[in-house]
Write a structure and sequence with these properties.
The chain is mostly helical. The chain is built from two helices and no strands. It has a domain at about 15-85. It comes from Macrostomum lignano.
Length: about 120
């Protein structure tokens, strides 16, 4: 049969984890940045150009902020995921050791019974 890997047994990120929504937020902000850039290109009067440049700069800063937050969120999620994986590995190792010890005990008892009979 197909074995399930340890990573498959880890829970997915919770729905309220902000890292899950960050790619969508980043995509929207990138679209906002592109729209601000388009307005800047279409601007005809100097005052409109200045307003468009300010809007583009603000959109650029928001995009960078979300990118930084996303990077930190994903690093935190990766760290939590790795800690959970390490915990599962330790649990699996301990379970295998207990199973091996019980098998050894069962074999010892069987050998003793065979010797005594």
């Amino acid at each position: 049969g197909a074995e399930i890997g340890l990573a498959d047994s880890l829970p997915p990120p919770p729905a309220d984890c902000s890292a899950v929504a960050l790619p969508d937020r980043r995509r929207r902000l990138a679209a906002s940045l592109e729209a601000a850039s388009a307005r800047l290109r279409r601007a005809r009067q100097p005052s409109e150009e200045a307003d468009a440049a300010k809007a583009r700069l603000a959109a650029f800063h928001r995009l960078n902020e979300v990118t930084d937050v996303a990077r930190l969120e994903l690093l935190g999620f990766r760290k939590r995921w790795l800690l959970a994986l390490c915990g599962r590995l330790v649990d699996t190792g301990e379970m295998r050791i207990r199973h091996a010890r019980s098998q050894v005990q069962l074999l010892k008892e069987t050998i003793d019974k065979l010797r005594n009979d």
